[in-house]
Amino acid sequence: MDSTKDYLAKKLNSDHQDLIHDISFDLFGKRFATCSSDQCVQVWDLDENGDWQKTACWKTHSGSVWKVTWAHPQFGQVLATCSFDKTACIWEERVVENASNKVEHIWVNKANLVDSRSFVKDVKFAPKHLGLQLATCSEKGVVRIYEAPDEMNLTQWSMQDQVECKISCSCISWNPSTYRYHSPMIAVGSDDSNSSSGGKVFILQYNDTVRDWIKISTIMIITDPVSDVSFAPNPALKYHRLAVASKDLHIFHLKPMNEDNDPNYDIQNTSYEHNLQEVAVLPDHRCEVTGLSWNETGTGLISAGVDGQIFLWKANYLGIWKKIGSLKGEIASPAEPQTFPQNNSLTAVAINNRYTARGFQQIQLKR
């Protein structure tokens, strides 16, 4: 897998009337959702011929929709969105037959989360082993954790915790690891550009003793605005792996400090001190890195830049990360994003590791 011929690229024409901000694949890679400044969300499904068909489009918020994300299919076909209008919304799919006996996919608004007093910049569902939980982050630096007490009733959500990060938040990532029943962990990135001092990535972990989320680490070496953070699955590793998209691509290892010395670590995981190590700085994009996606085993990473370049990374047996593939999509100059309504060459890029076994798939959506 060392040449772009191994990878698949498709271009789809959408009828979004403004900039597409986010694209998200479901767990199986056979569905994806898009959201846009036109306040709409679209859902696309893969048909029997391997073609993508738009099956739903609806208006969601009263402002630009910035992020869309899928819940684990164990909880049904459920989406969450967040917006400039300071809210996050929960949507559930209903499949019905109309009067012409044709199948329609209708997405029903189940709940609106309105606690934020500023723009909600990101929204992510928790890993399935934590139940139906949802995290949001806002421009004012607040991370909120919500939970649906009854998985069969998505109209009821309660805010479990609220964490003040004291700096504008732009992205969040749950740690998907279930290794040794590790406590829930979230990485938070900041796009604050007012100051070059101070870290832009925070690691939060739930402390069972105090029954609250605490900040266990701040990555001080990243002082540029952060566009994306992503924890890797680690089914066999004794440490956590975190990728950070900023001016460059950074990869970190986060290891509990007491693991090697505590013989009862399996059942007494009470330490929240970690050793953070930067294992790679990858400047190959030569521009802002905006999107990240790991493969299912956490051994391969895909990164996307504002120039439309997509790179595939893998560590060798020495732990050195190397670029092993690339794709280039069509995209306008980063200096001209405001001209989108008149510039059809601007695209949004989605990354799907599950659908294409040989590498990765690039989906470009044009207005």
UniProtKB/TrEMBL annotation:
One of its GO terms (cellular component) is lysosome. It holds the Pfam family WD40. Keywords: Cell cycle, Cell division, Kinetochore, Lysosome, Mitosis, mRNA transport, Nuclear pore complex, Nucleus, Protein transport, Repeat, Translocation, Transport, WD repeat. PROSITE patterns: WD_REPEATS_2 (PS50082), WD_REPEATS_REGION (PS50294). The keyword DNA-binding does not apply. GO terms for biological process: cell division; cellular response to amino acid starvation; positive regulation of TORC1 signaling; protein transport. InterPro entries: Sec13/Seh1_fam, WD40/YVTN_repeat-like_dom_sf, WD40_repeat_dom_sf, WD40_rpt. Its main location: nucleus. SMART domains: WD40. SUPFAM superfamilies: WD40 repeat-like (SSF50978). WD repeats lie at residues 13-47, 282-314. GO terms for molecular function: structural molecule activity. It is found in: Chromosome, Centromere, Kinetochore; Lysosome; Nucleus, Nuclear pore complex. Belongs to the WD repeat SEC13 family. Component of the Nup107-160 subcomplex of the nuclear pore complex (NPC). The Nup107-160 subcomplex is required for the assembly of a functional NPC. The Nup107-160 subcomplex is also required for normal kinetochore microtubule attachment, mitotic progression and chromosome segregation. This subunit plays a role in recruitment of the Nup107-160 subcomplex to the kinetochore. This is Nucleoporin SEH1.
